[in-house]
Amino acid sequence: MIGVDEEPQRAERPPGWSADPQPAPDARALLAEVAKGDEAAFDQLYEVIARPVFGLVRRLLRNAAQSEEVTQEVLVEVWRTATHYRPDKGSAMTWVLTLAHRRAVDRVRSEQSAADREAKVGSRSGARAFDEVSESVLGRLEQLQVRRCMSTLTELQRESVLLTYYRGYTYREAAELVGSPMATVKTRLRDALIRLRDCLGVG
Description:
The chain is an all-alpha fold. 69% of the residues lie in helices and 0% in strands. It folds into two domains: 25-118, RNA polymerase sigma factor, region 2, helix turn helix motif (Rna Polymerase Sigma Factor, Chain: A); 135-202, Arc Repressor Mutant, subunit A, CATH 1.10.10. The protein has helices spanning 27-34, 39-61, 64-81, 92-122, 130-151, 155-166, 171-178, 182-200. Residues 144-196 form the RNA polymerase sigma factor 70 region 4 type domain.
């Protein structure tokens, strides 16, 4: 479990990551603005936290696809629960990585529970009990919901989300890859995040 005194710089970085020569944005200040509903502040905050979050999640889950899904869930949770952050309890990055750690551990436990249930059922004869089937379904609902909501995005929005949130590209790198102005990529991401938030039913 991540301690409140752990330095955010120790979070795992994806391959190819290099330090920005410019001073890093103040995550605590950005998070305070996000708590007020400032979407522009979230645009900046995500550039600070997306890669460390993905690195931590990938280290715990190993599976790339699941790591991408959990990273997206964490980023949405940061937007939704920014008002819960308390500066006196630790740094903003530590708070974010704690959310990521909890989500990743929950996914590991969910997958393990599903595997255990399947093994248990496979070792005995007869039909599975209704409550056993229900538990298996409920354990995968969140994952399916994220996939369903991703499918509601436009092709351009989905492309921008995949490049930045999932693949770890910066705005500038994503813009170069798709051949669009950086401002356009930012707008697509902001609109995609709002649509995902509404689809997932979070406030």
